[in-house]
Amino acid sequence: MTPLSDVKYLRWCIPDYRSFLILLTLIACKAVALDTNGVPNQLTGCGDPDAAYQHALSMMQTPVAAVSDLNEIVARGRIRILLHQNHGICSISLAERRLMEQFAREKGLTPVWIYVDEDWQLLPSLLAGMGDIIAAGGDSLAAGMSGQVKFSLPWASSYQQVVVRTDTGQISNLEDLAVRQVAIKRSSPAWALMEEIATQYPGIDLVEIPSSLTNEMILQRVNSGQYDVTVLESIFLETYLPGHPELSVALDLPGERSMAWGVSAAATELHASLNQFLNKNHLTLDAGNVYLDDLPKIQQRHVLRVITYQNTTGYYQREGRLYGFEYDLVKKFARAHNLRVSVVLASSHKEMQDLLLQGKGDIIAASLPATMSRDMDQIYYTKPYHYAAPVIVGRDTDDRLLDTRDLEGRRIILPAESPYRTYLESVRNRGINFELAEAEKGINTETALLMVAMGIYDLTVVGSHQIKSGFVRQIGLKPHFILSEPEAHAWAVRSGDHRLLAAINAYIDHEYRSEFYNIIYSKYITEPVIPDGNAGLITRLDRLSPFDEIARTYAERYDFDWRLIVALMFQESHFNPKAASDSGAEGLMQVLPETSEQLGITNQNNPENSIHAGVRYLDLLRSKFENELLLEDRTWFSLASYNAGYNRVNRARRIAGKMGLDKDRWFDNVEKTMLASSSRNAGNADIPLCRCGQTVAFVREIRTRYNNYVRLTESASVASANGVYEHPIENLN
Q1: Is residue 721 part of a domain?
Q2: Is 253 helix (H, G, I), strand (E, B) or coil?
Q3: What is the torsional sign of CA 379, 381, 386, 390?
Q4: Cα 523–529–534 angle (5° rounding)?
């Protein structure tokens, strides 16, 4: 193997700098191993070794070509993504991989992943034309490459996290690491950080572990007790830990690195296209974040993520508002703990349980029978808050069925979300011969009922509380008979979330059959108001407002996610084009007349003009903040400025720095400055008085609503692709 000490000699032997970079990259990552005759041996790595090696050699033997820009990449049909791998394990989070693949899809490209064994190889490989984009990196990679590489807008941040066995004693701060063995690779960024921390807390035993160990191997050793503690990067742990409840994150270490994608400085079109894509899509990452936290840390996030499914009783949206028995019940619990509700949609109970265990939600609230969990050791149920019996439902023109014997020869279809399959299987095992089938993917309870009404399905089963909702009678169905005694319904949490479980149980004890409970029970179950037959729930799940198409048009023009614009529109006017505020703001987006005049867009009572003015103004505010900010924080600062004014937000950032807060982060940092400015103690030179508390609420409400909109529309998109909306209910009569 050619030693790295020969690199300087190789540089003089190969005058073509591009070929030198290629060869240097291959040698350093063991991609080229030279035998005694100097003949290259086989390439190693995650991908196809022979193909990658032959590609590198062919590049050295052909004339130097310009680095590919977007037009050349599109013509080729493939985008080559450079990625670091460690002993065959590729270091990219699922969220980043999906984001990169989404970019490729939008451009009609096939992503091709090209792997290197060392971080430092990424930039030489890019500059040598071996790839088009560097993924899973940060702008710190650009050291020494000034002017040769451009990085995208930073779309996320990553930080070092302390990992322990879940049954380890309390570790809540750095001092608790004293007398602990902290095992880290010397090559890890965490090594230098922990060396510095160890000088402050001398009891910390810092242990170097072999560089050949993969992250999985390290965590296996922590789990077995060979290591007390390790420190790994959050982008890896968010993917690994949900499947390993025996391990957990104890605390985050100070400091973080911005995540960005790198391209050649010559690829100007590709760089601009990546930034446009990230501006529109970066917030969708927040909707899928992984957290395995009990109530105290949930309260630090200020958001309770509720896993459920859409139906006409428990949870649905209409004209931008969120409704439902489960939703209202959870929302009151959340408010009691200073939390906002973010909804995670699932299509089956198995998916709900998977999402909970994977850390993509905090609680399941979906009228679940409290006896159906497949993971009783990992999932605990709360006290019952409702009771319902399963009911056989068919067309109102059919002869009435009296009991289970009448099911002989019939066909019962259940949507994936139905909790009644196990009970029906037990009925069939008692000798009643009927067919039991699962509906096509994407079919929910309401759509299954519609299919029965249309004669596509024979029978289905729903809960007695769904019969009371009136939806079944409205579309020509009738209940036949009750299958069993009422079952207790409960919410579900992870088994380790004891504080959350206790808090919910106390809430249920207090609220069950209370005045509030009875009001929402009547509103959604016994005496519901059913607008337009609830047709919109089945046929228009991807319609958030009456102005979606206008919002899409201008969001696309100014590089925003259209769902963020709709969330802002709802917050400002509740979709009322004639809305007017005491301050003089007008229209759907509540833009002040003087602002709209400066933008050259008048008549704010016209929906298109108002939306255009609002989006353009938000874009103008965004442009005032530094490109170096994380994209999501740049968005939150822009929204705060939309409400409170740019100068006020900028001043709050300066004050945040003086208060020891991070002036580049909105949540839990600059927003605290805004809250301080609205308190009774404000009004001095350091913290000027303002009505900024409403700005904090404004941004939080929009974030929560946006996340809910993302999940609603993504659920609709998946369902539509599976044929759910082929039979519009409006055309049935």
Answers
A1: no
A2: coil
A3: positive
A4: 120
pLDDT at 28 over 70: no
pTM score, two decimals?
A: 0.67
Residue 269 lies in a domain: no
Q: H or E element: which one contains 621?
A: helix 607-623
Bridge partners (DSSP) of residue 252 are 161
Distance in angstroms (rounded) separating the CA atoms of residues 24 and 522: 73
Q: Which residues are catalytic?
A: 572
129, 153, 177 - which closes a domain: 153
C-alpha radius of gyration, the chain, whole number: 29
DSSP letters spanning 194-207: HHHHHHHSTT-EEE
CA distance 652 to 659: 10
Residues 144 and 237 in one domain: no
DSSP notation for 623-683: HTS-TTS-HHHHHHHHHHHHHH-HHHHHHHHHHHHHTTS-TT-IIIIIHHHHHHHTSTT--
The CATH number of whichever domain residue 435 belongs to comes to 3.40.190.10
421: closest CA among 403, 435, 405? Answer: 435
The identity of residue 253, as a single letter, is: L
Strands 363-369 and 390-395: unpaired
Q: How many domains does the chain have?
A: 5
Rounded mean pLDDT of 12-26?
46
The most confident of the ranges 12-21, 469-478, 530-539, 704-713 is: 704-713
Distance between CA atoms of 217 and 227, rounded to whole angstroms? Answer: 11
- Does 274 reside within a domain? no
CA distance 592 to 599: 11
Instruction: Identify whether residues 568 and 678 lie together within a single domain.
Output: yes
Q: Do 592 and 670 lie in a common domain?
A: yes
The whole domain housing 185 covers 160-255
Classify 429 as helix, strand or coil. Answer: helix
If residue 460 lies in a helix (H) or strand (E), which one and from where to where? strand 460-463
User: Which tokens is 589 given?
Assistant: 């987006």
- CA neighbor of 696 nearest in space, from 360, 338, 279, 323: 338
**Contact predicate 404/459, CB 8 Å:** no
Condensed to tens digits (0 to 9), the pLDDT of residues 420-468 reads 888 899 999 999 999 999 888 777 787 888 888 877 789 999 988 887 6
Q: What's the CA gap between 430 and 408, in Å, rounded?
A: 12
Angle subtended by helix axes 631-644 and 607-623, to nearest 10: 120
Query: CB-hemisphere CA count at 13 Å for 479?
Result: 16
pLDDT, tens only, 640-659? 999 999 999 999 999 999 99
DSSP state of 187: T
Check whether residue 433 and residue 379 sit in a common domain: no
Rounded CA-CA distance 127/123 in Å is 6
| pLDDT over 90 (residue 234) | no
Secondary structure element (H or E) that encloses residue 599, with its range: helix 593-599
